[in-house]
Amino acid sequence: MAEPVRARRLTDAEGQALQRLVRRGNHGSIRVRRALIIMASASGTTAAAIAYLVAADDDTVRDVIHAFNARGLDALDPRWAGGRPCLISTDDVEFITQTALTRPERLGRPFTHWSIRKLLAYLADNPDRIVGIGRDRLRQILRHGKISFQRTRTWKESTDPQREAKLDRIEEVTSRFPNRCFAFDQFGPLSIRPCHGSGWAKEGRPDRLPATYSRTHGIRYFHGCYSLGGDQLWGIARRRKGADHSLAALKSIRAARPDCAPIYVIMDNLSANKTPAIRAWAKKNKVGLCLTPTSASWANSIEAQFGPLRSFVMGGSNHPNHIVLARRLQAYLRWRNANARHPDVLAAQRRERARVRSEKQRRWGRPKTRVA
Fold first, then answer.
1. Backbone phi and psi for residue 250, each to the nearest 5 degrees, phi listed first
2. Could you tell me the pTM of the whole model?
3. 58: which of 34, 182, 268, 295 lies 20 to 30 Å off by Cα?
4. C-alpha closest to that of 181 among 235, 232, 242
């Protein structure tokens, strides 16, 4: 039997490019649909499930995955043919892209970044190469060269010496034993305050929430557990993160598989998650602890499950106290587990994956090898 088709591991640059496209692009465009297919396949979703999510044919999904494995991000753009001959030479295009990537200060201009108008003016009057080009054509060239106007950002790479081994371990257990894999993490802090959200309202008359000036209820942390095979989410709100609460969550996971078969729990490197008592209990009860690398909690699949919680329970809410918040969390969990494949739940999970990957790079993949 042939192995199911799956996108290869994403590199840092590929993961970030796909995240930006999914978060900011037009979700009706071909490029965004193809980006969704690639991201879903890289995280382990089957071709049939992806076809259902993006409303495409199974063969189309497989073709996109094969094209990505062969050509990388160039697979986002279909190979169209025909059109008017280009009036700008390849050298002109190279000069335009290099100029756009060069800080204006180095070219004698008194500003820190280009605008379209400033770049056009420089191209039309510079000592190196005069290029006459229109504004729309300039935008097309920059887009084709994968150059976009972006905010500057900081970056952080995991320094865990066991990073590769931990990622390999997580990928192995999720691929080989999906029905015996679970995920655990803390979601929070949850405070009692009005939370902005979205909803239907009369035009020009949005729902309004009161401002908050004092928060006297303290905070809570939702200790969540997720079954990868059963697609079930459960948990409880606690006052703090502690080893006793982490152990209680692990015991609830063990109880979900009472057949005494070995199970695997993916969780982050929080000190409360790996105390000697927890390690001893896990060894005794056939629970394999799969820790994510430091500064790489995005490798935990439960992160995407917290997106719907943020959207449907916290967003647009004004809970009076933590008791009410806990009840509504549990009510949502009951509905969610009965409707795990609901399109709204799946859409919120996709948005959360895109947000987490944008902040923490991507789920799988090694950094690109730097050329000496």
1. -65, -35
2. 0.56
3. 182
4. 232
